[in-house]
Fold these 3 entries.
Entry 1:
Amino acid sequence: NGHNGNSRGALIVLEGLDRSGKTSQSSRLLPYLEGLGLSVELWRFPDRNTYVGEMISSYLANKSQLDDRTIHLLFSANRWEKRSLMETKLRSGTTLIVDRYSYSGVAFSSAKGLDIEWCKVKTCLSCYKHEISFVQAPEMGLLAPDLVVYLDIPPEKAAERGGYGGERYEQLEFQRKVAEHYKILHDTTWKGHCVDAPLEHATGRPDTVDGLIPSHPACYTIKVFPPFF
Ligand code: FDM
């Protein structure tokens, strides 16, 4: 129903393994939402255009080495440095489609098997209402999405899609672990929540998954889950 100056934009997050189709889906969703009269922008994390983003990019390209905790916090810092612009955009009525967000932060770092102080994620997520893991803590205070769509694809299928680009995390074995951790995140954050028209509030639209391609060539299913922070 478009925005009338009073309604804020929606924060829509797409998550999934590398090569899961986030880019295709976001470029589908963009014109779809624009067609509804909304002002929409595509964002992605990591945002490699900042100084922190450059450090992340160099790490991902194996051009620098960083301690697992350090890179984890850089990914989070990269979201923090965009937070105020994000809020301004949303308040001014622009809907943001964001390719990766805090869920990537938690799933990828916990898949590395960080030491116990950091990797209490399983335990913490299963009772996430009472306890926040060290991995999640840096995310607290960032803007919670209105909708998080996880493109669930078997890691083997993702790997078949045109190959990986050779960045640090683009290896089948590691992607399998990431998928497991996304699953934990999904199963545990789902508990106690119901997704009733998460975007209705923001845009007046009850169902935003419409613009996505539910059975696009490969074989993923789309799971929707609510914010954990
Ligand atoms: N990644 C991304 C993380 O490990 N943590 C994060 O917080 C984010 C946002 O970075 F392998 C990983 C996920 C991926 C890599 O992402 C770069 P893109 O989407 O390929 O640029």
Entry 2:
Amino acid sequence: VAVGQYMSKQYRKTIVSARDVLRKNDRGGYTVPTDGLYPFQWNWDASFTALGWSTWKPERAWAELHMLFKGQWDDGMIPSIVFHQYDDRYFPGPDTWQSPKVDPPTTGITQPPVVASCARYILQVSQHGDEDVHLRGLRNAYTLFHPILRYHRWFYKARDHKKMGRVSIHHPWESGMDNSPSWDEALEHVSTDNLPNYQRKDLMHVDADERPTQTQYDRFMSLVFSFRDVNYDYAQCAQVSQFQVADTCVNALLLKANKDLAWICAKLISHHKRLSLSLEELEALKSAQRELRELIDLSSRGMDSLWNDELGMYSCYDERMDKLINVPTSSAFLALYARHPDRVRARQLADKLAHWLDQVKYGVPSYDPESPMFDSVRYWRGPVWLVVNWMIAEGLEAYEFFELAERVRRDSRALIKEAGSYEYFDPMTGEGCGGNCFSWTSAIQLFWFP
Ligand code: 2M8
């Protein structure tokens, strides 16, 4: 698809440059988040990036997801990183992880499960394309359907320790929000006594002020080594992990992902003839539909338990200490994206968000800007992330907070226009931080702004 001839020159230029970012980061079927700093395929990055590809190359979008599933483990987990090709510019790489998955090698932990939701959006867009594109979309969605469902099941089997629909992460990297202040207290319980020597590589690419601290990295690595010692067996990891937290982001996104997978399932059932599915295949879909309904109920109960009255928003939960974590981060607003809160709570969240936006030049800050520990350039402790903005705005629209959604969208557009396609942005100045030419930022731009 050519960039539309009716678009303004300026607008055409931004689309072309966003597409160029994806092309530049394309490694033949999968996309790296950015060259150098992150030279492999990341789980949630790949899913968001596929949204970008879908705006002009739907087949390439599906390919991105199929490549991600090459990393799927026998137990269903989709790892945080798939190391398709060797590259020594990132630490920890496959030699350090030494996970049992070898072809291709992967990490031994996961990331927020957004793949079902992104697959839904891609399929949804293809409904408006020509017949062929839609049919190919349905076929791709069908190929991915059962592997995605196995991934979701893995969360409940391996991570719902208290069997209450609230799944936990065993490593801050699993939240995707690596140095979120939500982890500070829980990380203090992670011992670094037997930590071997290691060499970080992120600081070769990015300023130290914009990255997690050394103390945090030591704890990140101690956790990795403790999982490696038990060969990443999920039952043993649950025993040895010194960090077990129910993350608002992961739980909200898993709930939304179940809903979106149920949406896909309904489409597949209704198009079973066009897909030439056998009777057994059709029955398997119908039974999956029932199972997904149960998972939605289960995760909804889990989300309810993350409501924090003291903060007036959702928050994370420390499973080992058995208490809510009183730290206000932007992941609370993702409950709206999951369409979970009732009208009263949704209004509370919207008011809170509006107040946060009044404190900054560009929203949405990842952490309460009035908190004394707010740091406008340090990664997930203040900066704005466009993929999060998109999900929040999507949720706001679903609850008909149109003005607020528009404000988030306007800020997001302005950030890209003024700073470029950065990994994240300073909410006070709008300055771009971290890596440049960043895939998920450009992908969201392509998918959200036209
Ligand atoms: C960041 O995380 C990686 C570890 O997975 C890192 O810092 O080395 C996070 O922002 C994460 O959410 C993101 O998926 C990844 C790649 O963009 O980078």
Entry 3:
Amino acid sequence: EKLVIATHNPGKLREISALIEPLGFVCVGAEELRLPEPEEIGNTFADNADLKAREAADLSGFPALADDSGLCVEALHGMPGIFSARWAEDSEGKRDWMRAMEKVWDEVQATEPDAAPAAHFTCVLSLAWPNDGQTEAFEGRVDGTLVWPPRGDKGFGYDPMFVPVGYDQTFGELEPELKHGISHRADAFRKLVSALKP
Ligand code: ITT
């Protein structure tokens, strides 16, 4: 069965495909279908995940799965949160993850200096069927602490500065298979799978 993965982020596409392909779905990315990137006008992860899934399902005619996610730092009252991707953008909209990580670290040290600030990743996965207006959303989370300087090049986004609870290595250093087992995305995915089981 064909499922559109409604993301333009290659890191997410890789992780979602790894989670979902064992279930027998054929995943096709939004870029491959040349779907436009909708403007994320929602105020919550769930609203943004729903709007991305809805648009991809309606435009493609296939069920679509979207992921809205981000890094929430406790000392920053949950920021950057839904603005996680936007914190990486320069004035031309080009993303630079080192710049985003630096901004997070500098803001935390300016607010509440701490060698290991508490943070979590949140992920909302939303599944939409074409043309029937229905979406279903599932939220996952992983807790951890931030480190400086960033370490490792295995993940994407903020992974090099995030150490999940119970580990010493960052998501940038841990093996992808391990991240896929404990991440916010894996947590949301488990909820999605149990809801879809008859
Ligand atoms: P799409 O909307 O096309 O899916 P995006 O990158 O714009 O891609 P978001 O608006 O959801 O997606 O932004 C989420 C950002 O949060 C993302 O760009 C990452 O930097 C960060 N993020 C989410 N999950 C992450 C993870 O597992 N590891 C590291 N950073 C993550």
